[in-house]
Design brief:
This is Bifunctional diguanylate cyclase/phosphodiesterase. It is a single chain. The chain is of the alpha/beta class. It has a single domain, classed as EAL domain (TIM Barrel, Alpha-Beta Barrel). The chain is built from eleven helices and nine strands. Strands 1-2-4-5-6-7-8-9 form an eight-stranded mixed barrel, surrounded by five helices. The protein is globular. The protein binds guanosine-5'-monophosphate (2 copies), manganese (II) ion and sodium ion.
Length: 262
């Protein structure tokens, strides 16, 4: 239908844009960075979220140039924030998280494209975190992990997105070049009731303890209330993301939020 025919040229027509959602340190509430979330401003249908077009982009192969575009825009944005931060970077320079689809992982240009973008923009690799879903790495062989290892060795963080939704093979974690677990929103939702479900509390406690013992940081997604944030902070989670702090929004918004607490 309409989306399928319009998608291939949407990139050259400049119809994609990126919103940024802050990543907040649970210990002190400071904004440490943001996740880049792509949107399509469709001439007839208005703003479309990624669930409406990412699967299509993966199917048609557009995801490779689109993903490269998102990465470059996001890294440029991170550089701009860092320039604007100037001396007032109480919590350190802002970092940027970018989602990778499984098709990008198997594309041979991933490492070189990333290196080129970082060099062109003059942004240090440790400013960048690439998010890969747990399901994309299920049963991953060495060929699939090699590019991620290269990137991790350069200093790029790799985060395991939506962690806990798939067949989490905890023992498998050791083998993956990841440094961050992004705990799925469903865990945060179960912290909604007070007191929270004791089994869920134990599960999160166990994941955090395992993650920390493997030197992985834990980010929680979908935090919508202060009570959830507090509970997750007590459980030892490091960083949080969610509507409680901010909805995804334009880059200026993120910069304002980061400056307020600096
Ligand atoms: O907040 P939102 O509905 O935009 O995000 C939905 C999902 O879309 C996210 O969980 C993320 O996995 C995916 N997504 C957002 N932006 C990108 C992107 O640039 N590339 C890929 N591959 N996925 C994205
Ligand atoms: O990469 P990922 O699929 O995790 O992207 C985050 C998704 O979750 C996006 O679709 C984003 O809009 C959505 N989201 C972000 N914060 C919240 C929140 O606090 N609550 C809910 N329900 N969804 C959120
Ligand atoms: Mn993500
Ligand atoms: Na996620």
């Amino acid at each position: 239908h309409g989306l399928t025919t319009a998608l291939p040229t949407a990139l050259e027509r400049g119809e994609f844009f990126i919103e940024y959602q802050p990543l907040v340190h649970l210990g002190d509430g400071s904004v440490r960075g943001a996740e880049a979330l792509v949107r399509w401003l469709h001439p007839q249908h208005g703003v479309l979220g990624p669930d409406r077009f990412i699967p299509l982009a993966e199917h048609t192969g557009l995801i490779v140039p689109l993903g490269r575009w998102v990465l470059e825009q996001s890294v440029r944005q991170a550089r701009e924030w860092r320039e604007l931060q100037g001396g007032v970077e109480a919590a350190g320079p802002l970092r940027i998280n970018v989602n990778l689809s499984p098709c990008q992982l198997t594309h041979p240009g991933l490492v070189q494209d990333t290196v080129d973008i970082l060099e062109r923009t003059g942004v240090a690799p440790d400013a960048l975190c690439l998010e890969v879903t747990e399901s994309a790495l299920i049963g991953a062989d060495d060929d699939l992990l090699k590019p991620l290892r290269r990137l991790a060795e350069m200093g790029v963080d790799i985060a395991l997105d939506d962690f806990g939704t798939g067949y989490s093979n905890l023992a498998n974690l050791r083998r993956l070049p990841v440094s961050i677990l992004k705990l799925d929103r469903s865990f945060t939702q179960s912290m909604q009731q007070f007191p929270a479900d004791p089994v869920d509390l134990k599960i999160v406690e166990g994941i955090v303890s395992l993650a920390h013992s493997l030197d992985l940081a834990v980010t929680v997604e979908g935090v919508e209330t202060g009570a959830q944030a507090e509970q997750l902070r007590i459980l030892g989670c490091d960083t949080a993301q969610g509507w409680y702090y901010a909805r995804p929004g334009p880059p200026e918004r993120l910069h304002q939020l980061a400056l307020v607490d600096a």
